[in-house]
Design brief:
The protein is of the alpha+beta class. It has helices spanning 3-11, 17-25, 81-86, 107-116, 121-144, 147-162, 179-186, 190-202, 218-222, and strands spanning 28-32, 37-39, 47-61, 67-73, 78-79, 93-106, 163-165, 171-173, 206-209, 212-215. The protein has two domains: 3-138, Jelly Rolls (Sandwich), CATH 2.60.120; 145-222, Arc Repressor Mutant, subunit A (Orthogonal Bundle). β3 and β4 form a beta hairpin.
């Protein structure tokens, strides 16, 4: 698999177990229904979030109203730390996918923990570094890759991050994945993405169903990269 896909996988790395235990001890449980906004771009930061169950979609928006799905976060992943470090408003919208349970570590508790346990700073620095690398790759992809290549790459990323092996072979992406969402992930129209998905299906690389996608040939998709 190409190195930049491995870097994307690192974006979703979890924090060390000792740090996770400390965060959960200071956290408040939160529940969000499907589609609920956890926070919006421009909101003031009020804490660090961790995913207990469900999924969280991270969204960017263009000036023309278009939406870009940057990534989908799953159980064990933490987010929202950037604004806690720089004191600036939230940079993206974060929205629950399905019934979602989160941990919320209030801002005061978060900073108190880091003051008391300075050895926990490096894991957050490492997490931010990996996310910065991933965002650089997103920019490169948008400028340098054509649509079918961007689409194949994003499908491989989703299979790596949220895939479940099937008995008959292949990897099912464990997300409800309508074509509108895939289009938002690669900055294209639903119609254009649909045409390329049909081609991938004819090649035997993927299998499509309503809101569901199964990767049948990673090598086939990777041949475009």
């Amino acid at each position: 698999m190409p190195d930049n896909l491995l870097i994307h996988k690192e974006f979703l790395r979890t924090l060390p177990e000792a740090l996770t235990r400390e965060l959960e001890a200071r956290a408040l449980p939160k529940r969000y229904p499907d589609g609920a906004v956890i926070f919006r771009r421009g909101d003031a930061a009020h804490g660090l979030f961790g995913v207990r169950a469900g999924r969280v979609q991270v969204l960017g928006h263009g000036g023309d109203g278009r939406e870009l799905v940057l990534t989908v976060l799953g159980p064990g992943e933490w987010f929202g730390e950037l604004s806690l470090f720089d004191g600036l408003p939230r940079a993206h919208d974060n929205v629950a996918i399905g019934e979602t349970e989160l941990w919320l570590v209030p801002e005061r508790e978060f900073h108190a923990l880091l003051r008391a346990r300075p050895e926990f700073w490096p894991p957050f620095a490492e997490l931010l570094s990996h996310r910065l690398r991933m965002l650089f790759h997103f920019v490169e992809d948008a400028v340098l890759l054509d649509l079918p290549t961007r689409l194949a790459k994003r499908i491989l990323e989703l299979a790596g991050d949220h895939g479940a092996e099937e008995r008959g072979g292949g990897v099912a992406i464990d997300l409800h994945l309508p074509q509108e969402d895939l289009a938002a992930m690669v900055g294209a129209t639903r119609e254009a993405v649909g045409r390329h998905l049909k081609r991938f299906e004819r090649e035997g690389w993927i299998e499509l169903a309503y809101g569901r996608l199964v990767v049948r040939s990673r090598d086939g998709l990777a041949s475009l990269l």
